[in-house]
């Protein structure tokens, strides 16, 4: 069972449309589709300049703490066409990207990553541009 943060997510209109299109094209699992549709219904849309700095979006470096292992991981989220493993970048539409986008520092999310349920807390968000 996937369960995203209960908090309202905040997205730019461009990211909102990108995720909506991604879901519409069935690029996610049925479980993810359900969660994402619910999140999009409750999402607050803002312009890029009005997006709070502590919210995960495209071109962001995000530090998350795995609540089970207490280990921290850092992800750099970029546009789908700019994601490159060798650059250690993840697409905003990857599993981790979809799990984190729109959430802010302090939010805790529950998400399935390849059948493994993880509970992650966002501890830092850094804009790259």
TrEMBL record:
Protein's recorded name: Transcription elongation factor GreA/GreB C-terminal domain-containing protein
InterPro entries with a match to the protein in the record: GreA/GreB_C_sf, Tscrpt_elong_fac_GreA/B_C, Tscrpt_elong_fac_GreA/B_fam
An individual GO BP term: DNA-templated transcription elongation
SUPFAM superfamilies hit by this protein: FKBP-like
Residues of the Transcription elongation factor GreA/GreB C-terminal domain: 53-126
Pfam families on file: GreA_GreB
Source superkingdom: Bacteria
Lineage: Bacteria, Pseudomonadati, Bacteroidota, Flavobacteriia, Flavobacteriales
Gene Ontology MF terms in the entry: DNA binding; RNA polymerase binding
